[in-house]
Amino acid sequence: MSSPETVWEELASIDADPPTMRDKCTQCRRPVPVCWCPGLPKTRLSPASRLIILQHPAEVKRCLRTAPMLTFGLEVGKCLTFRGKKFPLLKHEGLSDILADTNTVMLYPTIASTTLNALDPVGLNGQKPYNLVILDGTWPQAKAMYHNSPILHSVRSCKLVGLPISEYVIRTQPTEGCLSTLETGALALSILEGNSQIRNELLGPLHYLCRFQLQNGAVTHQSKEWRIKQHTYPKLIGKRLAKQLRVLPED
After folding, report:
1. Using CA atoms, how far apart are residues 98 and 104, in angstroms rounded to an integer?
2. What does the pLDDT read at residue 178?
3. Which residue from 105, 126, 226, 249 has the highest number of Cβ atoms inside 10 Å of its Cβ?
């Protein structure tokens, strides 16, 4: 056992200055070596419609969140983010008017939800630009935000069908049909605008991030659904996910 004198000498030799922090990108605020900004569109996209992201506060702490990719990929004012657990609050300036707009639609599965593809794209039959509301959080968080915000119950709800497999390959999704916030917003916006190029351009930073991570030791992730079917998922699953998987057809 070390003597008290030795212990104090070792403590005294520890550098009192904090470790050097890595330089961060002034835009995405990620360390420069892992910045995904080079994947953003060369010119910010300016669709007629705009995205309205209602974000759970816990999302801010996630290091690989994708909502900022929408913020910096779209022209200023085309992607508005409001943070909270219920909406609208006094600090959410302008949100009440947006939610009351007849051209506002929300991606959320309800009994009355219609498929997004069934809506007229902007310009068809005089359709004006949409306000597309997306709840940003885990499914339990999104569900809580919806139920805690009565005004959302009066917003026309829509759903995406025939979803592609997520291209966010360095993150494990709950099921094969789950998409990141970026992928959801990009796909939905391209449908409402009738322009598939919007999706392709907005996904640029996600592709850049995944490519960099895979080149530096990350591995491709399969969904929890896929791994459970293959009996390779090590964790216990909740009752809700187990119920979902029981009704899904086997491949």
Report:
1. 7
2. 80
3. 105
